[in-house]
Fold this protein.
Amino acid sequence: MAYGLDMSFLPGLAGRFVVFEGGDGSGKSTQLRLLVAELERAGVVFRQVREPGGTPVGDKIREALLTREIAEMTVRCEMLLYMASRAELCESVILPALRAGELVLADRFVSSTLAYQGAAGGLPAVDIAAVARVATRGLMPDLVVLFDVDTDAAARRLSPLLDRMEAKGAEFHRRVRRGYLEQARSDPRRYAVLDASKPPEHVWRQLCVALAERCRGWAGGQDRA
């Protein structure tokens, strides 16, 4: 039991699609590593993916999107590249894993595009949603875990070697945060918002409580349409 918590809910995640979201420096990667370790210990079959990337094609797209050697890229181009990587990942990895009854854990998905290229970048959400439906074949997560942290606090956690997206500046990342929170407010049954400003062990406790609650709901037939 990590940090003394009861992890008996973990088998209830089988066959689900759970996405970790949050701004750069939110600490979601740390929590993802903790969850992966517990899943391995419990023997739950899962597939872990990250965006952009996760496939040979997606990894090449990731290089183009995040390298600082490309100083300028239009927001629409960014959005379409993220979606291209996502389409390949869904087709090659995510959908086959879900059909096999595996838990899929994703480090980012469509919510990131809505926050970064939509709320912060200015693209209409309706346009992003239309492209997402094609890229993902209409796939939506069972749960989006949003790690929310103040923009200034998040910036202090980042490596000084920022990638192209991380280096977009404080006001850009404030808009990203607002975009994420607006998504969560508009779809509270699909989102769980965690206070990621707390120490890692406190965030982990929040995460476990949120996952356990969702597993109980799914077991009780409270799935989303």
